[in-house]
Amino acid sequence: MQAKKHPELSRQVAGATAEALAEAFLLRQGLRVLERNWRVRGGEIDLICEDHVSLVFVEVRLRRRNDFGGAGASITATKQRRLILAARHYLAGKRERPCRFDAVLLNGLTEASIEWIRNAFEAY
Fold this sequence. Notes:
Elements: H1 7-28, E1 32-40, E2 43-51, E3 54-62, H2 70-73, H3 77-91, E4 99-106, E5 114-121
Parallel strand pairs: 3-4
Antiparallel strand pairs: 1-2, 2-3, 4-5
């Protein structure tokens, strides 16, 4: 009897691989990773990095198909609100410093498929 495939598990593995590719890419760009998969009730931030004096909240998105607009289109207004909520929790009690929200978009699981968007959106 053949075991059933677990699409959720393969999606988790693909997501973890995409995050590892994004992290390695950002490290080579000179950023320093402070946190990975930082969670708070209501939101999660894939990577929290330092870029010189700025704190960078990074959303990593993988889309292998462009049927619904690709990886960038998947960062909806709702997703942005959740990222902003999580960032505000992370910043609570910390010294004030410049911050930005970046996106690392992948259309495949190779470094060649990475698109890095600085200041992908702003907190409102």
